[in-house]
Amino acid sequence: MLGAMEVVSPTAPPRGARGLHRFANPGRFLRLAGRALPWVSAIGLVLVALGLVWGLFFAPADWQQGDAVRIMYVHVPAAWLASAGYMALACASAVALVWRHPLADLAAVEIAPVGAGFTAICLVTGSLWGKPMWGAFWVWDARLTSVLVLFFLYLGHIALTRAFDSPERGYRAGAILALVGVVNLPIIKFSVDWWNTLHQPASITLTGAPTMYVGMLWPLLFTALGASFIFAALVLARLSAAVMERRIRALLAARAEGT
Amino acid sequence: MTHLAYIVPAYVSALVIPAWLAGEAWLRLRRARARLLALEGGRRR
Amino acid sequence: MKRKHRRLAILLACGLGLGSAAALTLFAFRDNLVFFVTPSDLASRGHAGETLRLGGLVAAGSIRHATIDGQPAVRFRVTDGRSSVNVSYIGVLPDLFREGQGVVTLGTLAPDGGFVASEVLAKHDETYMPKDVVEALKKSGRWQPDAGPPPPAATWNSLPATRNGG
């Protein structure tokens, strides 16, 4: 999907770099990301293609939902990644605020639009699943509302990081918003257990057997794993572009000063 | 297949949004790589 | 190194404060966060005249269909295992409506204790199974869908089934 990048920064990694800061060197990040991107994209595409064909044409229909249950193979991975993506956004924000990691700010900025996209998929497919099964495109129950709040948190992060003249201040404001929004994640997860909702509780849990026929579970696991790889590939590509764009800005600024 | 009127738009939305994000990322990568090559190549010469 | 640790401590303290504030708020508003009330809630608190959502399972053997002014009408009982409420509704029901199924109905509680619904939504549970599996469970007497929720998932989630599920 996306080709390897050939740009190699001439700067050497700082001496004695340890822990996360080993990846702070932009040149090294670009090299690693460029090497990983084709593989991550390809694995994601293959898994999703297998899972979707399996789910659409080979998995059994549900006894009461009929074929509408096949919307699950896109809805559930999108929902998982909407939350997981926000967790990644919050982690990047924490690393940026506490450790001032030079890539973390950029990572947060680039994760947000991808997370917003997957949240949008979750909302649209959920709505299209809800109408024929529940009888309504939308209801204001705790699960649906908290996922809509997640979508607005993503949009708010996107807007906030671009609202300041100095990017540093935008990053700072966005990081704080991202961390405050983490409160919403357990609400999304447990809304269906804590309060009466129209949305059903989770079928796949860590504690019990999945309340789903195995012939439906397998394609779901394929699309979920594949979608995770695609999410990662999108973030890697956007982050690589952002690193290069930052370098371009620095070079242009240096050139403007030099002349 | 039952409920095609709901299944088809659901799958289309699930394919179009990531494809759009991927296209955007690919364009950004290509443009940034070209500009950086031009800038750094010029500096090294 | 010192400042890094101070920033981390501030972040954790803020997180703790925000988390407890959120938990307290959610706890305080827990009655408003539910999408529907159960028949037991209705029985204990009484909401006569209010418009609210009532949710539960459609009781087995309780559905009575009729036609009023050319419109399909239905009466059924919604139960949560402890209490039940008689519901009347005029209009089109969702496809998943059946005895033993979850429903959420919007309406008002009449003085006679019956519930007059203007909207009926189906609430399905978290189990997904092909028709073959349901037939096998019915045949072996392990589950009657009208009567309530299915048996533990591990007992059925890998039984054989065909693509169309029968």
What does this structure look like?
The complex is a heterotrimer of chains A (259), B (45) and C (166). With 259 residues, chain A is mainly alpha-helical. Chain A has one domain (29-202, 215-258). In chain A, 70% of the residues lie in helices and 0% in strands. The two termini of chain A are 40 Å apart. In chain A, 53% of the residues are buried. Chain B has one helix and no strands. Chain B has one helix spanning 4-44. Chain B is rod-shaped, with a radius of gyration of 20 Å. With 166 residues, chain C is of the alpha+beta class. Chain C has three domains: 2-32; 34-123, Nucleic acid-binding proteins (OB fold (Dihydrolipoamide Acetyltransferase, E2P), Beta Barrel); 126-161, no CATH class. In chain C, 28% of the residues lie in helices and 28% in strands. Chain C has four helices and six strands; from the N terminus they run H-H-H-E-E-E-E-E-E-H. Chain C has a five-stranded mixed barrel. The longest helix of chain C is centred in the first third of the chain and has 27 residues, at 2-28. Chain C is flat, with a radius of gyration of 23 Å. The mean pLDDT of chain C is 87. Chains in contact: A-B, A-C. Chains A and C meet through helix 2 and helix 7 of A and helix 1, strand 6 and helix 4 of C.
Task: Give a topology summary.
The complex is a heterotrimer of chains A (259), B (45) and C (166).
Chain A: H1 26-58, H2 72-99, H3 104-133, H4 142-161, H5 167-180, H6 184-194, H7 214-258
Chain B: H1 4-44
Chain C: H1 2-28, H2 30-33, H3 39-45, E1 51-58, E2 64-68, E3 71-79, E4 84-90, E5 102-109, E6 115-123, H4 131-139
Parallel strand pairs in C: 4-6
Antiparallel strand pairs in C: 1-3, 1-5, 2-3, 3-4, 5-6
What labels would you give this structure?
heterotrimer, B: 45 residues, mainly alpha, 91% helix, C: 166 residues, alpha+beta, OB fold (Dihydrolipoamide Acetyltransferase, E2P), 3 domains, five-stranded mixed β-barrel, 4 helices, 6 strands
The share of residues in helices of chain A is: 55-70%
Write the element-wise H/E pattern of chain A from the N-terminal end onward.
Answer: HHHHHHH
Identify the biggest protein-protein contact and residues per side. Answer: A-C, 48 and 52 residues
Q: Evaluate the radius of gyration of chain A.
A: 21 Å
Oligomer: heterotrimer
Hey, roughly how much beta strand do the residues of chain A contain? under 5%
Query: What is the total number of structural domains of chain C?
Result: 3
Mean pLDDT of chain A: 89
Amino- and carboxy-terminal Cα gap of chain A: 40 Å
Number of strands of chain A: 0
Written as H for each helix and E for each strand, in order along the chain, the element string of chain C is HHHEEEEEEH
Provide a count of the helices of chain C: 4
| Main beta sheet strand tally, sense and closure of chain C | 5 strands, mixed, barrel
